Structures are given as structure tokens and as C-alpha cells.
Amino acid sequence: MGEVWVRSPYLFDGYLGAPGAEAHRRDGFVFVGEIGHLDGNGLLWLKGRRTRMITIADQNVYPEEVENFITDLPGVAACAVLPLPDALRGHRLVACLEGAREPRLSAAVTDACRRRFGPLVAPRRVHFLDDLPRLVSGKTDHAELARLLEGGS
């Protein structure tokens, strides 16, 4: 597991409209924040963004890995996973699913995550929202989602 550095004639110098959010460069390679590993066949598997990594009971956890797993489950349209503070373990995860509240789907997601990730990493709660908040790019707006959760939605 480590930082993913890439080299290509199509590299960029920074993020448009984000002063100071420049890509890290070294010897013709660029690092844009992803963590991953190469398998035995030389295939690259991404775990998540370095900036989103959290710890749960001294385990490094990438919420994207849990999001991707949940999104692939039957009946899930879209998913976002957020960390919440936990005094005992450092963090705990909550999953937010897009769509109407479905208790059976909530239970299926929780059970599948416990089998795949274990009880510490599996989301402790599943929330349903009509629509996940999105950025202009179409990606989930995690900051807005965190505000919604704090507000009790």
C-alpha cells in the first residue's frame, strides 16, 4: 500500500480554481492524493484519497472502499460514507444512501459490510436521503452531507 504516482504527457500543474491545491511533482511523476497497491498481475487497485483516510481502533480505513462496496450491492443507487468522531475508537462510519427509506436495504447493507469489513469498520448507521448533495462536477459533496447529518437529517 502506498501513494500512487503517475507519469504521462497529459499531466496537469494544479487544480483550476483551487489556489494552493497543486499537484505534487517529482522526477517527471505527479501525485494527486490517491493511495493504492499493485496486485500480482500488475493491476493498480485504489484504496482512496490520502486526505480521507481515518483510523478506527488503530486501523487505517478509506471510506471510499466502503462506499464502493456498498454501491455495488443490489438495490443501492448511490452511497456516501462519512466518519463521525468516536471517543473510544477514534471514528465510526455512517452510510448515506440515496432514495426512500428501506429498512430491509439498511439491514442488508449493514450485514454485508460486517461480513466484508468486520464490525469495527462496517457503518454503524445507515441514513436515507432523497438525493445526495452533489458538487458541480457531479461528485458527492461530503462537506454538505456532513452538515446535513449534524442538522439531524
TrEMBL record:
A Pfam family the protein falls into: AMP-binding_C
InterPro entries noted in UniProt: AMP-bd_C, AMP-bd_C_sf, ANL_N_sf, ATP-dep_AMP-bd_enzyme
Domain of life where this protein originates: Bacteria
Domain AMP-binding enzyme C-terminal: 65-139
SUPFAM superfamilies: Acetyl-CoA synthetase-like
Cited Gene3D superfamilies: 3.30.300.30, N-terminal domain of ligase-like
Xref: PANTHER family: LONG-CHAIN-FATTY-ACID--COA LIGASE, NONRIBOSOMAL PEPTIDE SYNTHASE PES1 (EUROFUNG)-RELATED
Protein name: AMP-binding enzyme C-terminal domain-containing protein
